[in-house]
Write a structure and sequence with these properties.
This protein is of the alpha+beta class. About 20% of the residues lie in helices and about 35% in strands. The protein has a single domain, classed as 2,3-Dihydroxybiphenyl 1,2-Dioxygenase, domain 1 (Roll). The two termini are about 25 Å apart.
């Protein structure tokens, strides 16, 4: 039986560059660097990893699907824009507020805020 998500890993070309983006621009942390090709960010019940030696068939720029929860989507979007990220407008849906962005390798992610009662 599956009881949670252990981690999510994105393929990147340059772990230090990608780690700086996710740490300094998006605001992830704390960071645990295992070596020059793999780093993890603690996100509470799970973690987000960057891997320069991904499994066969997974290339930098092809990853998507992670949604980072925040209290301030508009503020996160502003930080992403200031950091030079490719980021969408903020969208309102019945259950959440989101924006969509890409990291320096072109991997896609979502910045998300669940609405109260949703």
């Amino acid at each position: 039986m599956i009881n949670g998500v252990a981690f999510t890993a994105y393929a990147v070309r340059d772990v230090p560059r990608a780690a700086a983006f996710y740490r300094d621009v998006l605001g992830l942390g704390p960071e645990n660097a295992f070596n020059a090709e793999y780093v993890e960010f603690d996100l509470g019940a799970t973690c987000f990893a960057l891997d320069a030696s991904p499994p066969p068939g997974i290339a930098p720029g092809t990853c998507s699907g992670v949604a980072f929860e925040t209290d301030d989507v508009a503020g996160a979007r502003s930080r992403l824009l200031a950091g030079g990220a490719d980021v969408s407008d903020v969208y309102e849906f019945p259950t959440c507020t989101v924006c969509f962005a890409k990291d320096p390798d072109g991997n896609a992610f979502t910045v998300h805020k669940k609405k109260p009662g949703a």
